[in-house]
Amino acid sequence: IRDGVHVLVEVKASASDSDVVKLWRIGHLYERVVGVKPRLVLVTPFIDERGLEASKRLGVEVYTKT
To answer: What is the pTM of this model?
Structure first.
């Protein structure tokens, strides 16, 4: 939490659409419990095309080398 912004970060060696959905679900649970919508960030050196599409659809930020 910094400046009132809650950020949930997950670091993975590689990611797919199921990993993005899992992080989104964790963020949704966090919002229900804490009452604040978090910023969701996934850091990975490799993510497949379906994972990138899912991240755009669900609003998960992805930081990758590609």
So the answer is: 0.93
